[in-house]
Amino acid sequence: MSDWFLYPLMILAGFAAGFINTLAGSGSILTLPLLLYMGLPANMANATNRVCIVLQNTTGTITFQRSHMLDLRGALILGTPAVMGSILGASIAVSLEEAIMRKVIGIVMALMAILMVIHSERWLIDRSMTRLIRPKWWHLILMFFIGVYGGFIQLGVGIFILVTLVMGVGYNMRWGNAVKMAIILLFNIAALIIFQGSGQVNWPLGLILAAGSMLGAWMAARYAIHWNPKWIYRFLLMIIIVTSMDLLGVFKLVGDLFTRSI
């Protein structure tokens, strides 16, 4: 790629993705299209993106752990079925068309946004996390299927995990973000190993993207420690709505209508 300016752009996109992924999710909506524009085939872009994800989540997890905000035991319990699911998701060939998948994910995210508004008190009340969380059996099953999806494609998986942790398992938003980072780190290590085994990882591009994403994850983890839950809730809700609209083709439809009108 002869356009040198694309490499600083990758670092900036990585920074934004790392920040968004740490506080909410769907940062891959920035990195995946950029990797495709850099000339990678879709399967290689999906695999290479995991380098960025693994390193940014390593940074975020360590930052949360040093701030004594990570329930490591809970992350390992919930992360184990997610790892098993990610191995399945990264290994099998999924026949579902991408266009259909994007619409299904968009609808699910729109429903999650509605649930977040209806049950906003679960997100805004900064519940004490002095007692250990004990996940139920259905939390583990749900994490397995989230892991299958995350192993197949990363986009939006952080939002699915965070909603499950806060509205299902019972974490507050700060601790839920920390556990989410650790779970995503675990199952993406497994997915990255599988993708590397198939020769689909472009390490130079992945590491350039990761340079920015690690800084973004570190800054977001520092913010998440001190931010009022109300602001993190609003940020997460905005990301879910924007991602849902993009996946459902709302922006493309508006752009087409605007183009026809001029």
Major sheet summary line: none
Strand content: under 5%
- End-to-end span in angstroms? 35 Å
Shape: globular
Give the fraction of residues assigned to helices: over 70%
Could you characterize the architecture of this molecule?
This protein has 262 residues and is mostly helical. It has a domain at 6-95 and 137-227. The chain has helices at 6-23, 28-37, 42-66, 72-91, 98-118, 121-124, 137-152, 157-169, 173-197, 203-226, 229-247, 250-261. The mean pLDDT is 81.
Spell out the key features of this protein.
single chain, mainly alpha, 262 residues, globular
Write the topology of this structure.
Elements: H1 6-23, H2 28-37, H3 42-66, H4 72-91, H5 98-118, H6 121-124, H7 137-152, H8 157-169, H9 173-197, H10 203-226, H11 229-247, H12 250-261
Give a nutshell description of this structure.
The chain has helices at residues 6-23, 28-37, 42-66, 72-91, 98-118, 121-124, 137-152, 157-169, 173-197, 203-226, 229-247, 250-261.
